[in-house]
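Attaching the record inline, Q. Sequence:
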Amino acid sequence: MTKFWNAMVRGILALGLLLILLLAGPLTMLASSGAAGSDWRSASREIMGLAPDPVETPGAVVQVYAARAYGWRGAFGVHSWIAVKPAGADDYRSYHVLGWRARHGGNSVVTRTGPPDREWYGNPPQLIAHLEGPEAEAAIPLIEERVDAYPHARTYHVWPGPNSNTFTAWVARGIPALELDLPPTAIGKDYRPATGIVGQSVSGTGVQVSLFGLLGVTAALREGLEINIAGMTFGVDPDDMNLKLPGIGRIGPPPDRRAGALSE
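Structure, as predicted:
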């Protein structure tokens, strides 16, 4: 009986330690940055100047962005989206997922025309992938095919997915040229029932094993080594000298967002 109780105590302590590790980062973000945010109706949607001017850029452009989610969710993760500008086009098209549309019985995938680099309701976006010229021109039809084929368009769950990051990851897995390394705070990127428990990483430069986005491991040249526990990511990226932590995200130098940078 003593052994049983000792095992129980050790189990409870281990669970408590795991919860502390998982929640320390999000709670720090919530306390230090005011992640709860303001009223969404008055939150900033300012253009940040990260996208090439379409009028002055005749060639094709593909970009992927991520910004802290609105409200308290921003303490845990980001919202991501994909933008394309075909050659000769005078504006961008952005693709992303909105959960409220699926919850009301509609298609969650949204197409928006206009500058792709606006703040996400008060949270500035980060550019996380960029293609330009012939590579972008070749990728755009593939991106649009993937957008149309997204298998979770009428299903949305903030945690563990499918959500906006599941959508971005789904599209990117079909576009090897992007070599997309989504932030560790992109909760939902590892949700992959539609593509099987085992398969390629989001970047296409390695492998991933993931059980419904709740428990998994990724090992890839782009992402490095990531361990997913309850949808949150711990990891290390030797290529970019980054440490990856839940809630906090990357600690280290900003990664090179150009596709193909690994081979340079």
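The mean pLDDT is 87. The two ends are 61 Å apart (CA to CA).

More tomorrow.
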